[in-house]
Amino acid sequence: MPTSPARRSRPRPRTRRRGSMPLFTLILLAISAGLGGIVWYYLRPNDKDATAAVLTTPVFSGPYSHIVLEQGTVESSSNIEIRCEVRSSGGTEIIWVIDEGEIVKRGDKLVELSTASLEQELVRQQIAVNTSRAMVVQAENSLEAAKIARTEYLEGTFRQEEQSILSQIFVAEENLRRAELAFQSTERLAARGIVRALQLEGDQFGVEKARNELEAAQTKLEVLRRYTKAKTLKQFDSDITIGEAKLESEQESHRLEVEKLEELREQIAACTILAPEEGQVIHANVTSGNNEFIVEPGAMVRENQVIIRLPDPNRMQVKATINESRISLVAAEMPATIRFDALPNEILHGQVVRVNQYAEPTSWRSGNIRQYAAFVRIDDPPPEVRSGMNAEVRIFVEREDEALQVPVQALYETQGHFFCLLKNGEDWETRSVQVGSSNDSFMTIDSGLVEGEQLVMNPRAFAHKLQLPELTPMERRPLPGALAAAREDNGPGERPDRMVSVDEPRGPRGDRQPAGERGERAGPPDERAAAPAAGGREPGRVFDALDANGDGVLSAAELEHLPAEQRQRILAADTDGDGVVTREEFIRAVSAMAGGRAELPRGEAPR
Fold it and tell me: 117-270 in CATH: which number?
């Protein structure tokens, strides 16, 4: 089918629109750039406008309080703690526990612990007791047998042996008498020649034999009485002593086994814990730190671990944990107010009774942050206050009904001295003030200001208007501990470790000069203060400020208060190596650091 003229003409307008888009875009960009330039021109920073838009605040007098605000938990200062008295290396399982919040009376059951392992051990211990009893009976019998054996020997065996030997002696004596009579008769007959000499010798031998037999029997009796009896008695006495010792040992072992049996019975009885007094049950749950413990059936409890507390509702306190940066501000007997989450419209009063000397246990989640517990007594707690409630504690470190004070932002601090910038119309005034304490928002004024005077809120933004005096090393002082702690959190001024005056070199009208105009290299404030420009603060004045003893030279001892880097720079100016820095050496070194300015001639003291 042939194409109509209308359809052939449709692509032409699209071609013309594509060609006109870049031009339209350029026009929009040009308009946007023009509007942006106009806006920037009228809204650009202007030093005169910045100077005119000065925020001021009046010096006022009114109530002042320095507080430490922390969260805490309500507990009773007098708790009856119900502990686990069951000894077990791996813990004892809770099989039943009374519900928290229940009101119990004396003798009511609170906790029931598992007794399965104890009952098994009780059976084994009963067997051990029976065995030890049998050993005691055996030792008693052995001792009695040893005693009977000793008596048997003395009254029986020894006497029998003695009688036997005496009988032998009697026979030997009779034989000796007969032998002697026979020998005498034979000797008479031999003298007459009736018997021969050989028979005489035989009768003489009989006499000697009978005499020897008698002496042997007598010796045997003496040995029996003197040695055999003593030796045998010693043996029997030893057996008796051993028997007594063994009996005593077996009796002691049996006693210990019986005691262990009784302990096991007591341990089984201790698995059922009863209330010693009436009160409200509070479970001793531990939900902080690494060792979490929830009192419930199935939980394992250690020996002497607290399971339940029965608090005294008339003696309540708040345990608040305080950060280590503020713990030095809190002390006992400081007043406090307590507000409870459960009682938002009621504020109670109290007093700090104790501050722990050691930090609370921490976990890996807390990092290196240390918390210290402070206990605040609640005066006249209402019945609605219960253990475990969350509370907000305000501890009043300092409180005055009427104190002259200013916001901390209106103070300029340098080397422990505080200054304020006052503005009255077109006039600017720098005034030194003596400050008291700070509560992170306001600081009390001891002297230097009058109520109603207008102070610049941020004097650091107008440092070129500040006229600061030069401080000698003797005038520099660190901040007091409380002010340093407050400034560490959110206080005015700069860090107290700045050892050189912080006022920057100024021009003839007191204007702050850029680093390039005063010949000073840009850098950290400490470095600029350590190397003042010859065109700003005169080097001679800096030298006089550092020369504490006024002897005209700077020694290492006079520079000890400076940071190590600054001290090394000044000591490096000792070109002649005599160990001290003279005025001329100091001026030449400072001028060289200032960026190539002409050195002061030798011997010419700066004005």
Answer: 1.10.287
